[in-house]
Amino acid sequence: MDPEKQQQIMGYFIEEAREHLETIEKGLLELQSTMNDQEQLNELFRAAHSVKGGAAMLGFGSIQKTAHSLEDCFKILKEEPVPVDQKLETLFLKGYDTLQKLLERLQGPFGLREEDGAEIVKESQPVFEELKKYLDTLVKGGGEGDADPTRRDLGLEIANEVINLLRQMLMLFKQKPDAENRKRIGTLCNQLAEMSPQMQNWQSLVKTAAGAIANPSNSYDLIAPVTIKELKYASDFIAVGKPDTMPPSSLLLELAGQSPKQAGITLNEQEFIIKAEPQAAAKKLIETFDKKQLTVLTKLLVKAVKS
C-alpha cells in the first residue's frame, strides 16, 4: 500500500479510536448510571468492538487484544445485571487505562512498536484476569452460586408486579404534589414492601423511598426519577434471584433524612456514604482517601468536566 495512503488510514483510525475511548471513559466514570441504561451499555460494547476491528485491520495486535478483553467484559454487563462497587469501577478503569496507553504510544513520535505493545499487554493481563473473575463472582451473586429455578421464577413474578406498581406510581408523580397524592404514592410503597417482606435490602429501599416521598420539601421533579430508577433497578436483581443486592443510594437516604444505620444498611470497609453537596463531598473524600488516591480522583473529575 502507498505509504501516504497508509498514513492517512492510520490517522482515520486514531481519530476514530480516540472518540471511542471517550465513549468508554464516560461510561466507566458513570458506571452506576450506565448500568441502568441498556443503550449506554450497547455503546460501550460497540466502542470496544470498533477499536478491536480497526486495530485488527491495521495489524496492531496489542490494541486488538486489549479492546477484545474490554469487549468481552462489556458483553457480560449487557447480559447480566451486576451490582456496581468501587472494586469493579477500579478494575474497569485500569483496563481502560491500558487501551489508552497503547493508543497514546501509537500517536507518539516513534509509534507503537510491537515489543512495547506486547509488554504493555503482558503487564495488564492480571488486571483483566481479575476483572473477569470478579464479574463472574458478581454474576453468581457474590460467589454463592446461581439462584435455584424456583427462586428465580418467584423473583421474576415479583419483578413483574413491581413494574406494574411503578407504572401507577409514575402516573401519580405527574399529578399535583399535595398531601393526598403523596399519601397515595405511600400506599403503593406499602404494597411494594408487602411483596417481599423477607428481603432486607428491598425493605430498606422501599422504606427509604416512602420516607423521601412523604417529605413535602422534596419536589416530584427531584424525587420521582431517583425513586423509579432505584426501585426498577432493584426489581431487575429480584428477577434474576439476587434480591438483596440493591440497598438505597446515598442520595435517596439523604432525601429521606436517614443514615445508613437507620436504614439497616451495613457498609463494607471500601464503601461510604457521600452527601450530594460539593463542600461536604470534598471533605468526606479528603478524610477517606490518601494523597495518591486523591490525585487519581482529581484527574478523573477533570476528564469528566472536559467531556
TrEMBL record:
A GO BP term here is: phosphorelay signal transduction system
Molecular functions per Gene Ontology: kinase activity
Q: Which Pfam families match?
A: Hpt
Keyword Phosphoprotein (UniProt): yes
Q: Where is the HPt domain?
A: 2-106
Q: Which residues form a coiled coil?
A: 14-41
- The modified positions for Phosphohistidine read 49
Q: Which InterPro entries match?
A: Bact_Chemotaxis_CheA, HPT_dom_sf, Sig_transdc_His_kin_Hpt_dom
Known SMART domains for this protein?
HPT
| Membrane-crossing residue ranges in chain numbering | none
Q: Which UniProt keywords apply?
A: Coiled coil, Kinase, Phosphoprotein, Transferase
- Origin: domain of life: Bacteria
Q: What is this protein called?
A: Chemotaxis protein histidine kinase-like protein
Q: Which organism is it from?
A: Oscillatoria acuminata PCC 6304
Lineage of producing organism: Bacteria, Bacillati, Cyanobacteriota, Cyanophyceae, Oscillatoriophycideae
